[in-house]
Amino acid sequence: MNKALSFTETHFDRFVDELIDFLRIPSVSTDPDHAKDVRAAADWLADHLRKLGIQTVDVMETEGFPIVYAEHIVDPTKPTILVYGHYDVQPPDPLELWDSAPFNPVIKNGDLYARGACDDKGQLFMHLKAAESFLSGAKALPLNVKYIFEGEEEVGSEHLPGFLTKHKNLLAADVAVVSDTALFGNGVPSITYGLRGLAYVEVVLEGPDRDLHSGVYGGAIENPINALAKMIADLHDENHRVTIAGFYDNVIALTPEERSTFASLPFDSDEWVHDVGAKKPRMENGYSVLEGTTARPTLDCNGIWGGFTGKGAKTVLPARAHVKISCRLVPGQTPDEITAKLKAHFEKHVPATMKLTFTNLHGGHGALVDTNSDAMKAASEAMEGVYGEKPYMVRCGGSIPIVADFKKILGQETVLMGFGLDSDAIHSPNEKFGLDRFRKGIDSIIRFMDIYSKG
Question: Which 3 state secondary structure label does DSSP give 169?
Answer without folding.
Answer: coil
